[in-house]
């Protein structure tokens, strides 16, 4: 069985396109088999995007597990002064994200293949993720640990996770890594959790 958090080049294609308004911008997104939320914008991603407060000091953003790109591209388009690096292990998702950046005229992004942080260097003001929960808690917690190391001093990690898929344990674990952790939104079982590096 193929999973969106793995790279499966053998999977056949079923390219689709959907249209959505995010942060007052119209988007058209190409999707395909083998990527997360193929049929439309995932509700958790929507809640995350709508609850991100982009401070003027934020310049460098990293979207981990970007999929076909709705989170990173919508933030980049709404905030052209930012530069968003978008990474995913899934080559199909990366190719779609690049196609979607071009389709939606978003140029302040870099989209590259990376198994979590394996191909990520440097530090960021903000790291965002709708993490691949089905990959398992061990991988998700590793994502949080690496995120903390790749944040600048005072940098923020913002994640969305369903309560039934481990939001309370994520919240408790993040408190062991960050000086400040808060749930900034709860919506239909989704928690948006914001962590700040001292």
Features:
9 strands; 5 helices; 27% helix; Rossmann fold; alpha/beta; 7-stranded mixed beta sheet; two-stranded antiparallel sheet
What gap, in angstroms, lies between the N and C termini?
41 Å
What is the helix fraction of residues, given as a range? Answer: 25-40%
The computed structural class is alpha/beta
Largest sheet: 7 strands, mixed
CATH T-level topology? Rossmann fold
Residue fraction in strands:
25-35%
Describe the protein.
Strand 8 and strand 9 form a beta hairpin. A seven-stranded mixed sheet has the order 5-4-3-6-7-9-8, with helices on both faces. Strands 1-2 form a two-stranded antiparallel ribbon. The protein is globular, with a radius of gyration of 15 Å. Helix 1 packs parallel to helix 2. The protein has one domain (16-196): Rossmann fold, CATH 3.40.50. 27% of the residues lie in helices and 32% in strands. The model has no long low-confidence stretch (mean pLDDT 91). It starts with 15 loop residues before the first strand and ends with a strand. The chain is an alpha/beta fold. It has helices at residues 43-50, 70-78, 91-103, 137-149, 167-177, and strands spanning 16-22, 25-31, 60-64, 83-88, 109-113, 124-129, 151-162, 180-187, 190-196. The chain has five helices and nine strands.
């Amino acid at each position: 069985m193929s999973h969106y958090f793995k790279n499966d080049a053998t999977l056949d294609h079923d390219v689709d396109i959907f249209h959505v308004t995010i942060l007052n911008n119209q988007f058209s997104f190409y999707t395909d088999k083998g990527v997360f939320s193929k049929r439309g914008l995932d509700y958790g991603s929507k809640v995350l995007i709508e609850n991100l407060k982009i401070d003027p000091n934020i310049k460098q953003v990293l979207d981990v597990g970007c999929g076909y790109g709705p989170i990173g591209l919508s933030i980049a388009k709404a905030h052209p002064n930012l530069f968003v690096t978008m990474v995913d292990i899934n080559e199909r998702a990366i190719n779609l994200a690049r196609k979607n950046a071009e389709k939606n005229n978003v140029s302040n992004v870099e989209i590259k293949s990376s198994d979590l942080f394996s191909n990520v260097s440097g530090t960021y003001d903000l790291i965002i993720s709708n993490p691949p929960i089905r990959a398992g808690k061990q991988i998700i917690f590793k994502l949080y640990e690496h995120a903390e190391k790749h944040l600048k001093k005072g940098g923020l990690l913002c994640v969305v996770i369903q309560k039934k898929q481990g939001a309370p344990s994520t919240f408790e674990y993040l408190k062991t890594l960050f000086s400040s952790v808060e749930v900034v939104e709860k919506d239909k079982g989704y928690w948006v959790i914001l962590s700040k590096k001292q």
